[in-house]
Design brief:
Mean pLDDT: 78
Low-confidence stretches: none
Helix content: 40-55%
Order of helices and strands: HHHHHEE
Distance between the termini: 58 Å
Shape: globular
Length: 121
């Protein structure tokens, strides 16, 4: 029994380590559109940037669904008379993406070894 668990754990680890995470690029962020998944990291980064531009601070722009991000989504939704529980929905995405038609002419790039994003320009 223990051997079976150990073998399963090793196989799972090998599979997980062989899967490469998709690289997030500035173009990938700028081109992000709603696709029935609010968990897409590039989409979350774009939503955080759009919230920040609309003056609803999501906290650190990091592509993570954190407490500040959910509070910003809720405040944005309330301001636009959209029912929300802090989750990005298609209706909320449409309203949010309508607040900014073009990406800024600034470059978005990863910062060092941490998982944050910086906007330079």
């Amino acid at each position: 029994m223990h051997v079976r668990v150990l073998v399963s754990a090793i196989l799972l680890w090998l599979f997980a380590s062989s899967v490469q995470a998709a690289e997030i690029t500035p173009a990938g962020i700028n081109d992000s559109q709603w696709g029935n998944s609010a968990n897409d990291e590039a989409l979350l980064i774009k939503a955080q940037i759009l919230l920040d531009r609309a003056r609803f601070s999501p906290g650190e722009i990091d592509g993570r669904d954190g407490e500040n991000y959910r509070k910003a989504l809720t405040a944005f939704a309330r301001e636009h008379s959209i029912e929300s529980k802090g989750n990005l929905t298609e209706q909320l995405w449409r309203e949010l993406s309508a607040t900014s038609q073009e990406p800024r002419r600034r470059q978005i790039h990863p910062v060092g070894q941490r998982r944050g994003w910086a906007i330079s320009g």
